[in-house]
Specification:
This protein has 307 residues and is of the alpha/beta class. Helix content is 28%, strand content 23%. The relative contact order is 0.19.
Length: 307
Amino acid sequence: MTDPEVTRADAPASGEDPQVVPVTEAAEDVVDPISFDFVPDIRLIACDMDGTLLDDDDAVHDDFWPLIEDLHSRGIVFCPASGRQYYNLRERFEPIADHVVFIAENGTYVVRGDTELSSECLELADAHEMVRVARRINESGGDVGAVLCGKASAYIERTDDPFLSEVDKYYHRLKIVDDLTAMTDDEVLKVAIYDFVSSEQVSAPAYASFVGSHQVVVSGEHWLDLMSLAANKGTGIRHIQEALGLTRDQTMVFGDFLNDLEMMDEATYSFAMANAHPTLSERARYRAPGNTENGVVRTIKSVLGLS
């Protein structure tokens, strides 16, 4: 076992996984970008957005854009993998949108260029019941808002400014309707719940009856995502690997929160950010510097030996 302070790992023997650098519990530790004494044949890099690629000001580091150009010239596909809406992601990456693959809505919608690679939709009856649960939380003294996330748009019925300011961050196409349970003219990818108190402590227990039949995922301190049982970022990664003829050994992923868990299982080179949730850190093989330290870009450069 390598000492936690060592940031190099030996090359794996054929068929074996690379040696794992232990993930310590102290998220505030200073973490340097890992390097190997070999350059892995990475062909796909998937990266969460909030808390991972983006800093705490919701910004991408300036070094990211020239790195993406370098990766593209080397035949390496970059994939934003997020709980955000596809249209939000496409707008964010507009200069390179035709050269990346998007995992949107936490794996329920995978798009390459303008081509859908996969989607996992909810039954409308289930989506409507999830909305009714949100209403009951509020009737019991909670403070939540529901977003019905469709392929064509997202839909909300709550319209106060505090809720709108949170929803606007993630949904480029957004429609206000009188009654979400009357919405029937779009395919629903997921239902997202914004909890002003705590998604993990308040909303998740309220949706316990859906566990087992659906994915109930704490995707942030205030966000809870309700999706098809088959949907997660990991299945999204597998769909891309199958479409491009790639393997786990050719895949690198980065994440920070619980909606990134399954993604860690689909890549030999899986990285938890230094600011990651402890459960995610335990699942990943390696650590990367935090999102405020340009950890994704620095780690990619270090692993691939790029200047």
